[in-house]
Amino acid sequence: MLVYFKCVDCTTEVRRVVEAGGRIQQDKFSIGPYGYIALVLDTEGNMSALHSMH
């Protein structure tokens, strides 16, 4: 299961993940008319996704 978190801008949240010790699995990328997503790993190695329209 992959949990998606809605945010205003994936870029901002990816930066916060890295600052908190997490890692980027897949940087922000377009999913067409549905916005953008980014995949991140927390400090335990758990993956989650970030979704934004910008």
What can be said about the biggest beta sheet?
4 strands, mixed
Order of helices and strands: EHEEE
Distance between the termini: 24 Å
Principal-axis shape equals globular
Measured by DSSP, the beta-strand proportion falls in: 35-45%
For the record, the CATH class is Alpha Beta
Oligomeric state of the chains?
Answer: single chain
SSE class: alpha+beta
Question: What is the helical fraction, as a range of percent?
Answer: 10-25%
Strand order of the largest sheet: 1-4-3-2
The CATH topology annotation reads as 2,3-Dihydroxybiphenyl 1,2-Dioxygenase, domain 1
User: What's the number of domains?
Assistant: 1
The poorly predicted ranges are none
Instruction: Return the CATH architecture.
Output: Roll
**Mean pLDDT score:** 98
Number of helices: 1
The radius of gyration over CA amounts to: 10 Å
Q: In the CATH hierarchy, what is the superfamily?
A: 2,3-Dihydroxybiphenyl 1,2-Dioxygenase, domain 1
